[in-house]
User: Fold this.
Amino acid sequence: MDSLEKRNTDSALEESTSKWRRRALIIWALVGICVLFYILGFILNVMSMPVSIIVWCVVFVFCLNPLVDALHRRGVGRGAGTVIAFATLILGIGLLGWVLFAPGIGASGQFSSLANSLPSYAQGVMDSMAAAADQYSDILKNETVQSWITQISDSLYSFLGNFANVAGSSIVEFGSAVANTAMVIGFALVISFWIIMELPGINREIYRLVRPERREDFGLFVDTLVTVIGGYLKATLLQCFIIGLGCGIGYAILGLPSPAALGIITGFLNIIPVVGPWL
Assistant:
């Protein structure tokens, strides 16, 4: 009898110990995941500029190299073709800057006006919700539903008011972000210029690293990758430009305020797959 009780006691103790071990393992696993995310966030914060430079280099190389190749096939040297391609790119960036900041038609003032107008837009939304509540008062007589509507409208108005205040008081941060972006794009332009000009030699060196019997498959893979990624990037940028321009003109015809700013926002948001057009 004593032996049976001892075995039961040992079994219960072992089960309790195993349970606490599992709990301790789960707790330490959660702590480890939190630490891992913190380290990952720190690394991404530190590496944000190099990663941005690499991404912009990829975009420039995939978008400009076909133009350089086309000019090379027409007898233009690769160096001269690279200069022409980058001159075209810089001209396009200058045109975009002129559209954004030129006196009279610049969209920078429209962005500021749009941010300052957000509280009035929120008030308009609240008035529309109040009118809808009056129209469907028979359905919305429930006090809980009315309380939800009031809370949502107040939160929306408060959020947009705070957003406008932050947008109006963060000129220094905006200028810093613009300066960092300009520096990233500048580095990316220099690196991508060298890559495009020396791309045939770089390709030859890469092919030398592949075993001879695998070079044909590797070449097919690279051609497919370049075609797919390059086509996607160029088509997306062209689509964003067409949509932004068309929407900006449409907004102006409809008489909406800040049509250029809204058109630029529409074009940039279209870069985001699926969600961007809805936004």
In short: The first helix runs from residue 2 to 46. The CA atoms of residues 148 and 154 lie 10 Å apart. DSSP finds ten helices and no strands in the chain.
